[in-house]
Amino acid sequence: MAVHRFAGAVAAALTATVLISGNTLAAAPIRGATELGRVDYGVCRGTDPACYHDWGNFDPATDGYRVLVYSRTAGPRHAHLGPALPAGLNPPFTAAHAAQSALVKLGADHGFAVDWTEDVTQLNSPARLFRYNAVIFMSTTRDTLDDPAQTALRQYIRGGGGFVGVHNAFGTEYNWPWYEGLLGGANYYDHGANQPGTVVTASRRDASTGGLPARWDFTDEWYNLVPFPSGVRVLARVDESTLPDGATGGSGHPGHGRDHPVSWCQYYDGGRSWVTTLGHSVDAWTDTPTTGDTYFTTHLLGGIESAMGRRPFCR
Description:
Rossmann fold, 15 strands
């Protein structure tokens, strides 16, 4: 039944699409949704769950919840990742692997299992990925997937999988349009100085923002984006007026003014996608007290749990 509902939604959207720029198609609202269901990047995406595939690939009552953290880099490597990890699944950490360690602890503290790898062969089959309720791209960079892994990720998402993209997941797979769509039709362009700023909670219609205050302070690089995300539910923005050094990036991007998103969610090609540009500082991933770190952790935890279907997603 879910297959027929999805096919009907796509067919309805296709009959109402108009070319708005390049190869981007905007679709009419699906079933009266207040935000657009879209057919961009050749797939159904948006905030309407008609774009989701509930094909019974996950049975948390039997299997529990488990996520895979993937942090392979094929370019610049953030300090919060530490040195490159050995091959295989769940290789040993050092104290420098701050982000991976923090995600493992987050799972242990909140009742879901966490595996981790930087070995692309661990992502080369849909069957392997379907062991996980969500796959987390943790500051991956450049061409971090080979052809089998690209195919497996796409099939996993099409089968109802969850995706979480954190920080430099936006600097990954630049020349793969499907992945750009998974990020909400957005990509990293540049960033301003690493500096304090105020995050504005834009929507509480996701588990990741339900318990956050209206405004909270945090320090980050505040990514500028080209393309700009579209057809998504923006969950949090940075108030550029609070950035002491401004939002202008190193490559000349002037910032996004009053609409500078930092986190958003969408249904995409059958799966769930929750992404955030936040998470640059090593201290954000350690026990070192920093301004806003508890809000960031709450936000990230909610995003992971909503993407894996444990808590309300992108309502």
